[in-house]
Amino acid sequence: MSQSMQFVSAADFKARSREVVSNPHLRKSFRGAMDYLMTRRAAQFESPEVFASMRATGEAIRQYSLAHLPDLLEQLESRLTSLGVQVHYAENAEQANQIFLAIAQQHQATRLIKGKSMVSEEIELNHEMARHGVNCLESDMGEYIVQLAGERPSHIIMPAIHKTKQDIAKLFAEQIPNTPYTEDVDELIRIGRNILRTEFMEADIGVSGANFLVAETGSIVLVENEGNGRMCTTVPPVHIAITGIEKIVERLDHVPPLFSLLTRSATGQATTTYLNIITGPRREGEKDGPKELHLILLDNGRTQAYQHESYRASLQCIRCGACMNHCPVYTRVGGLTYGTTYPGPIGAIISPHLQDLKVTQDLPTASSLCGACGEVCPVGIPIPDILMQLREAAQHEAHAGELPLKGQGQARGTLQSLAWKAWRIIYGNTMLYRNFLWLASRFNFLTPPVQAGWTQSRTPLKPAKNTLRDMLKKQYPH
Fold this sequence. Notes:
Blueprint: H1 13-21, H2 24-43, H3 48-67, H4 69-82, E1 86-90, H5 93-106, E2 111-114, H6 118-122, H7 125-131, E3 135-138, H8 141-149, H9 165-175, H10 185-202, E4 205-208, E5 212-214, E6 219-224, H11 228-234, E7 238-244, E8 248-249, H12 255-267, E9 274-278, E10 292-298, H13 302-307, H14 309-312, H15 322-325, H16 330-333, H17 344-354, H18 372-376, H19 383-395, H20 414-427, H21 430-442, H22 468-475
Parallel strand pairs: 1-10, 2-3, 2-4, 4-7, 5-8, 7-10
Antiparallel strand pairs: 5-6, 6-9
């Protein structure tokens, strides 16, 4: 558990992609899993018209929530405070981890049990707590598996989707004391469940994420299938929930339409096993629930996306993973290749705000722009359009009066800038242009066979022996 699980750099995306693409075993595993998920999702929507109607509702709710985000956050904080919930704001991952550590130290806690939370992955909570002697154990089975392996989740819904039962059997036999090797899936689940049951009872603090926050009632909504989220939020005496500031909705009746879209798009289920609505800590006379409840609202670059109208739509995401399942790039390279918490198309448009556009510049280009991600998004995020905008932003500085993104314009290197300046000079002067064409056509044998990224998948560009002007003069001498 003490093994570092920090991100590999998103800047190494291309190199890791080549490794995965050359691994037929991984490609076959991902392809089968994605086909299964796409089939299940399609079966949940009666017709394209039904999906379009449901999506229009979900999109309208998310856009309304974002349009009123500052006011809703104030309303949520006021309501939570009146319920006895302690609300914390964290500008970045460091501040969020400091809040976690302060609460743990206040309660002399050494053991945290955590339900599935991608935001906690975003701040590297497990690793940071381990640095201070606090063990944070994953209770979601997929998260538990990748934690044992010292890896990051490869999918936001199914963290261990890249693992086979043989991989898990070997991992359990090596990492869990007195565990025999078995490939029986039910037995593997039983082994993990027995370990986690004890941890729920002995943990000092339970940690969770939040699928939705309801400003009207001060409720934290959790969607899950395994029951570990309910255990984490009811058994330990202290519960800490962490989520992004964008997860808020105004009213409780905004949750059902989004819940219906989330479950159908994520796992192909009409409904999940558990829908938890947590409204405040344990009250007098209640038999379960935490005595103390904290909510950490994380920014970590989200306000940057919010400030730009062209990028704000990325915050509509309800983390269903449908765009990943349908993406021809993700299904070939897998989530670990991206080097970010959120892989796939949605990760490509969110990660530049959470990290830096210079570091993540390759992610928006990791797309065929087929449009599948935008078509299946249950809340209507125009992912292909945002990918194109980020590609341009990576190459160009912000215009005057425009708010720049972190790392904007830094993807263009010195050589590239010089090449475009030369092109502008040559093509902007008639005499230079004609002389350039004459030289290029006569000395085309000097064309280099390797031309940066162009020749990685294409034949070299080589000037023709005769220019169009020369050919026209020869055919029409007068």
